[in-house]
Amino acid sequence: MPDAKQKFFDPRPESVGLAREFAVTTLSSWGLHRSTEDIRLCVSELASNALVHGSDPEHGFLVRLDAEEDFVRLEVHDSLSRHRLEPEIAQAGETDTAGRGLQISAVLADSWGVEDRRPSGKIVWTRFKAGRPGGQARAC
User: Fold this and answer.
1) Is 5-89+96-129 CATH 3.30.565.10?
2) Can you tell me the distance from the alpha carbon of 114 to that of 62, in angstroms, rounded to the nearest whole number?
3) Are 139 and 38 in contact (CB under 8 A)?
4) With the CA atoms of 34, 37, 38 and 44 taken in that order, what torsion angle do they form, in degrees rounded to the nearest 10?
């Protein structure tokens, strides 16, 4: 079982792309390729949410990946607790350009949830079966 890997990202828009690269590199180093695109997309959505809604100008977010038996667990830790603990899956309209991050993550992941880290933020996590065939993102 590979060791969990984590990396802290500054509160800058470029950090979302760096978080995606970190996830893909980590999964590749573990030889896990089958759910890479699903996980990559969820990293992007959850990191974007942490950046926009959960990070103040002085604190960023942390991405952690862990291989647990037959699953990969992705966690994104934010730094603020000003928003309620349980984020809601938004019902975005057809023309809305935002508000689908958690909806996408919930569809792609086998499970997801939120853990309280007050006073220093929360963790939004997703779990993926490591053996999902194909390695391509599923249709939402």
Assistant:
1) yes
2) 14
3) no
4) 150
Instruction: For the chain, give every domain's residue range.
Output: 5-89+96-129
Overall pTM > 0.70 = yes
Residues 128 and 74 sit within 8 Å (Cβ to Cβ): yes
Q: Can you give the pLDDT of all 140 residues of the chain as single tens digits? A: 678 999 999 999 999 999 999 999 999 999 988 789 999 999 999 999 888 877 777 789 999 999 987 899 999 999 875 555 455 555 655 554 455 556 777 778 898 988 887 677 889 999 998 754 344 444 44
